[in-house]
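Q: Hi! First time asking for a complex rather than a single chain. Here are the components, and I think there are two in total. Is that enough to go on?
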Amino acid sequence: MLQIRLHGRGGQGVVTAAEMLSLSAFLEGHFAQAFPSFGSERTGAPVVAYARIDNKEIRTHEPILEPDAVVVQDRTLLTALDVFAGISDQGFAIINSAEAPEQIVPELCERLPKGHVLTVPATDFAMQKIGRPLPGAPMIAALAAATGVFKLESVQKSFQSRYPGKVGDANAETAALAYEFIMNVKNGGQNA
Amino acid sequence: MLKQIEGSLGIAEAVALCRPGAVCAYPISPQTHIVENVGKFVKEGKLQDCEFVNVESEFSAMSVSIGASAGGVRTYTATASQGLLYMVEGIYNASGLGLPIVMTVASRAIGAPINIWNDHSDSLSQRDSGWLQLFCESNQDALDTHIMAFKIAEEVGLPVMVCMDGFVLTHAFERLDIPSQEQIDSFLPEYQPKEFLDPKEPISMGAMVGPEAFTELRFLIQRKMEKALDVIERVTKEYRELTGHHSGGLLDCYRCEDAELKLIILGSSVGTAKDEVDRLRDQGIKVGIISLKSYRPFPYAKLREAIGDCKKVVCLERSFSYGARGIICPEVKRAMEGTDCDIRTTVAGLGGRAIFGSTINKIVHASLEGKLKDEITWIDMDTKLLNSYLKDAEGVTVPEDALVDDSVLKATVGHA
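A: Yes, that's all I need. Here is the structure of the assembled complex.
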């Protein structure tokens, strides 16, 4: 089972991102689950959502304390709370930032395997294509690229089915930018 | 058809498959998404011949539901927590009149203090209302149980609450297998009320009954509840054969064979507990789970059979009765009267405090190591937090990291 924790702020589409992540896995025949950490959500307040992917029925409904991957949609959370708490030794961390991971989370880079801590300028991509700071689609596309557990096409299809038309297409384009960005890093390209 | 959707949407789809003629509800978290979606289906024409009625309160929602059901149409509503409490006068009328209304209770704590999160205190507060209460383990179970609930309610002649854990299930995005309209049409025939309010042939319902016949009417509701035990089992069997889904039932056993300890759990914690029980079994610890699906009617005989000759039973309760103890545990004791089965209860998961696999592990170890000394133990109590209040307010404390049970409670008030 792959357990993913997503951190962001109210209004950034964190819960939607978790749902679309689960839908992407479902479209590829996996069992998947997504749920928010239910609270009195307000715009700007820290929000946590969870997702699980497995090849058999997912029965547990406990919150995820030991994630295999952590997605941070808002880097200002890095100093506000311990977003990487409990992350597994082989875990992945994807952070929404234009800066290199070694610059913003040097300790985590040392602790996790090479290539498991990645940054992606998701908000920049979202502003280019969607015109609003909604980093959900590019963040989960980056996760797809980093882990290879689900495909870019599934992420795109998820957003396009949830938001048919222009909004879905813009999310799909943003997802493609982030996916390519991470694949380029993995292949030692110019973003690396 | 397989879909990856929010639990609430799944329930709305299930309700639509049952072709209700009237849906009336007032929004309250965590139930709102369900009726929002049902309302959408009515507006889009996906659910036809159904009147969706917007009202200003839960009291009206239940009142309209009573009127619609008494008028002879299949009726659905949904609520939670304070909303359920606001309905209470109508709730008793619905069962007293024998109206087969189906209502989702998206289980949520009751204030004060205000708390929107999940526990079981809302529906359990309506224990004696004459409604059936069916609890659900998962979203698939909840979806299926809603469909079965209409058939059960209409055969028994009593209303049914389908209790699904608020947020934990209602807001979880999961894979659901949704039966086809043809399947459900073959399973659930058009509602044929035995009698209903008809302006052309007026009758009275719920007229005054004095001491000369009130006892007998009460006994007749008890008799319906007794019949419901068989109806639930029969309808479950039929539904399982139709869909292949292992949902519903009075109770369900998991790895109970040769179990030295059986846990009795209601709702979504069962799934979490199943994973933990698998881990414990791998370590050679013989523990099983009885998922209690029907709280009313309470399946005494079936539970006694499920516990069998197991000597240790621990309930996990997400509610308790002030001034008394657990709510489920006394029922289990009643089921096991005359045996030497040791029955204890643990209270956890109040007001949304998460129940983890580790919570289940703690209960199992505490039981097997003889640490559940009293009938009731508050297993996930934060003793530091508790002491931070008790020390300042009254100068007493509980031992840190102790299991907070009846003896610990008594010690804090100076009772031996």
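A: Residues 2-186 of chain A form a domain with the Pyruvate-ferredoxin Oxidoreductase; domain 3 fold (CATH 3.40.920.10). Let me know if you'd like any chain examined more closely.
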